[in-house]
C-alpha cells in the first residue's frame, strides 16, 4: 500500500501542476483576438510529435518599464530567431535610441518610442519594417517583475566581463552572484559603461543565459514551481498559444549555450532637433537582416 502511494505521488504532483501551468499560461497569454489569430496561424509548425521538426520562428522580446496611468516605455527591444532543427538561437538587441520610422504613426523617432505610441502592435510593426522580416511572436516583460525570477532561483551567477560601479552597487570583473534587485540595476546601467548601449546589450545577454541555465535545472523548477509560475504570470504577456508553450516546454533542446549575439555597432551618434539618436550603418543593418532571415530559412 505504501509503495503504491509512493509510486502515485509523482503522477499526483504532475496532475496538480499541470493545472497550475494552465492557469499561469492563461494569465500570460494575450487575450486580444488579433494576436491570438496570428499565433494560431503558426500552430501547424508546432507538432507534439518529436519526429517532426518545429519550424524556425522569430520572437520580439519587449522589456517594459511599466508606469501608473501610462502604457510604459520599452527599455529593451530584443529580436530572437530560433531554429530548432539546428538547435541555435540568434539574438539582436536593438539600441533603444535607434532612429527609425514608427510604422502606423508616420514619424521618424527613437525606435523605443513605438511601444509608448501604440503598444505591442506598433512596436512589432516598426521592428518588422526595420529588420525587413516577419515577427511571429512577441513576449512583453515587466522587467522589474521578471527579474524577481532570479530571487526565486536564490540568485544567479554570471561572468561579468567589465568591472562597473553604479551608486552603491559594485559589480566586479569575473564571476559574480546577483540577486533580483542587483540584476535589475546591472541590466540597466548605461552611462557608467564606456561601451554605452552595447555594454548593456552584453549584460542583458549574460542575464538571459543565466536565467535559462537555472531554468534547465529540474530541482530549481520542480521545487519552486508555484513561486516561479506566480512571478511569471504577473510579469509576462505573450501571444503564444497554450499548445505552443507546452510543445516548447516538452520538446525544445537547451539553447542557453548556443546563443549568437548580433550587434548594430558601426553606426554613429547624431543630435537632431535637440535629441540624440543612434544612426545605424546601412550596410551593417543589411548584413544583420540577411543573417536573421537566413537563420529562419535554414533547415
From TrEMBL:
Belongs to the LytR/CpsA/Psr (LCP) family. Residues 73-216 form the Cell envelope-related transcriptional attenuator domain. PANTHER family: POLYISOPRENYL-TEICHOIC ACID--PEPTIDOGLYCAN TEICHOIC ACID TRANSFERASE TAGU. This is Cell envelope-related transcriptional attenuator domain-containing protein. InterPro entries: LytR/CpsA/Psr_CW_biosynth (IPR050922), LytR_CpsA_psr (IPR004474). NCBIfam families: lytR_cpsA_psr. Pfam families: LytR_cpsA_psr. Gene3D superfamilies: LCP protein.
